[in-house]
Amino acid sequence: MATVPTTHTVAVGDKVTAADENTYLRDAMEFWLNRPRCSIYQGTTATTCTTSGTAYLMNWDTENYDSDSMHSTSSNTSRIVFTTAGLYSIKVSVFFAANA
Predict the structure, then answer these.
(1) Per-residue confidence in pLDDT tens, the chain, 100 aa
(2) Pick from 62, 3, 5, 74: which is nearest to 38 by CA?
(3) Of the candidates 65, 71, 57, 62, which has an alpha carbon nearest to the alpha carbon of residue 41?
(4) 11: exposed, middle or buried (C-beta count within 10 Å: 0-12, 13-18, 19+)?
(5) Which helix (DSSP H) or strand (DSSP E) does residue 18 occupy?
(6) What angle do CA 30, 25, 88 make, to 5 degrees?
(7) pTM of the predicted model, to two decimals?
(8) End-to-end alpha carbon distance in the chain
């Protein structure tokens, strides 16, 4: 699980230590360069919703990547669990078959 970096305000006269650099600079940069994210899609499983007007869970059975253990391809494949607090952007594309 990723950890959101802490912040620090430097005051006049503060001495910068290696520990400060690691905590407030290196760890923060590492977090932003490898932020929590995942990309999942429905691969081999054919999903068919046969009833019109009924809610249906999509089984996202394949991952492109998952940097924060937010999705499982073996259980509860219809879920993404955000394990690190933050603001996330979610994009979904769904295709519908032609219907007379």
Answers:
(1) 567 777 788 889 988 889 888 888 888 888 888 888 899 888 765 666 667 777 878 888 888 999 888 999 888 888 899 988 888 888 888 777 776 5
(2) 62
(3) 62
(4) exposed
(5) helix 18-21
(6) 45
(7) 0.63
(8) 47
Cα–Cα distance for residue pair 49/51, rounded to 1 Å: 6
- For residues 63 and 61, give the distance between their C-alpha atoms in angstroms, rounded to a whole number: 7
HEC per residue, 24-86? HHHHHHHHHHCCCCEEEECCCCCCCCCCCCCCCCCCCCEEEEECCCCCCCCCCCCCCCCCCCC
